């Protein structure tokens, strides 16, 4: 869907015809809309199809009639909750600069785009292509920081559940969080490379004041990349520790069950001997039953004490 925006009285209004200095928003465009854009701006179709590719990484590509900047935005996974699906993933956003217009291309709506249109990212005029781009860069850095906070909170909540859990559900949840951090870490590293390339000013011409803003954004992205990597390592260590705890708990339970089985076997064996149809000494004496029961109870008590002091019957 193509939406055209133009400034009017300090707000954006929608227009029906493309004119210079309009901001164009393409959300999940069909081939007719892509062909319309390529003909109107003389741009290669891959500028639009690449921006719609879910696996596209951040990069900068130049053409004689414009250039494409691909960013990765953090989003909540629409398939979150399904098996092996991470809670957060990244979504590409294409920013296409032409001589007369700025075009934003995305496969689906993203809150960050809505914030830009609503003026929550900062004031701008639709002809300010560089400023709009830098506002998006800044918003992307904040979005990553926010989502890393969400992941940290989720990991902390899971860590509390792990203390008393013997199930695999929490471990799988940690694995899925780790997958999200891999997505974020990869995208943030690529964004840092892209921003350094743009700082050189060979392809993306920026003013000195904008360069300072881009430098600040680069620092934020690099910090977020470091945080993502640290939290990924922390989750990996937590999963290793949890696996060791589960293994230790399993061994403890097995030792307790083995000890209980041995304690039960002794009276069972003695009782089996006296229940056979074979003549035994003093089997007619009433005291024999009391003596045998006392021996079974004594042996069982001795075994219980032995296993208890050997910590076989303790689960903690």
From TrEMBL:
Main location: membrane
GO function terms (MF aspect): metal ion transmembrane transporter activity
GO cellular component: membrane
UniProt-listed Gene3D superfamilies: CorA soluble domain-like, Magnesium transport protein CorA, transmembrane region
Pfam families: CorA (PF01544)
Keyword annotations: Membrane, Transmembrane, Transmembrane helix
TM regions (residue ranges): 171-195, 256-275, 287-309
Membrane topology type: Multi-pass membrane protein
Keyword Transmembrane included in the entry's annotation: yes
Subcellular location as annotated: Membrane
Family per similarity comment: Belongs to the CorA metal ion transporter (MIT) (TC 1.A.35) family.
Name recorded for this polypeptide: Magnesium transporter CorA family protein
């Amino acid at each position: 869907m193509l939406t055209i925006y133009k400034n009017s009285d300090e707000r954006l209004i929608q227009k029906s015809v493309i004119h210079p200095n309009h901001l164009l928003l393409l959300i999940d465009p069909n081939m007719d809309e892509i062909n319309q854009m390529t003909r109107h701006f003389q741009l290669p179709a891959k500028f639009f199809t690449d921006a719609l590719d879910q696996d596209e990484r951040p990069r900068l590509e130049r053409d004689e009639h414009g250039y494409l900047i691909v960013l990765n935005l953090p989003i909540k996974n629409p398939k979150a909750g399904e098996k092996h699906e991470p809670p957060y993933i990244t979504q590409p956003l294409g920013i296409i600069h032409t001589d007369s217009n700025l075009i934003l291309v995305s496969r689906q709506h993203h809150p960050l785009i809505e914030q830009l249109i609503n003026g929550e990212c900062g004031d701008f005029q639709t002809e300010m292509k560089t400023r709009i781009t830098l506002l998006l860069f800044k918003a992307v850095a904040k979005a990553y920081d926010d989502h890393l906070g969400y992941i940290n909170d989720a990991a902390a909540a899971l860590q509390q559940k792990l203390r008393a859990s013997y199930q695999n559900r929490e471990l799988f949840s940690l694995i899925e969080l780790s997958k999200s951090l891999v997505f974020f870490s990869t995208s943030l590293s690529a964004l840092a490379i892209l921003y350094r390339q743009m700082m050189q000013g060979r392809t993306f011409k920026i003013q000195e004041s904008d360069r300072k803003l881009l430098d600040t954004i680069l620092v934020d992205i690099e910090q977020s990349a470091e945080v993502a990597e640290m939290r990924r390592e922390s989750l990996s260590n937590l999963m290793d520790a949890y696996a060791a705890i589960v293994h230790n708990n399993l061994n403890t339970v097995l030792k307790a069950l083995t000890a209980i089985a041995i304690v039960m076997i002794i009276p069972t064996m003695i009782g089996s001997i006296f229940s056979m149809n074979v003549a035994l000494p003093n089997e007619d004496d009433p005291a024999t039953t009391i003596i045998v029961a006392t021996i079974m109870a004594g042996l069982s008590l001795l075994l219980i004490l032995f296993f208890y002091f050997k910590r076989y019957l303790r689960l903690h």
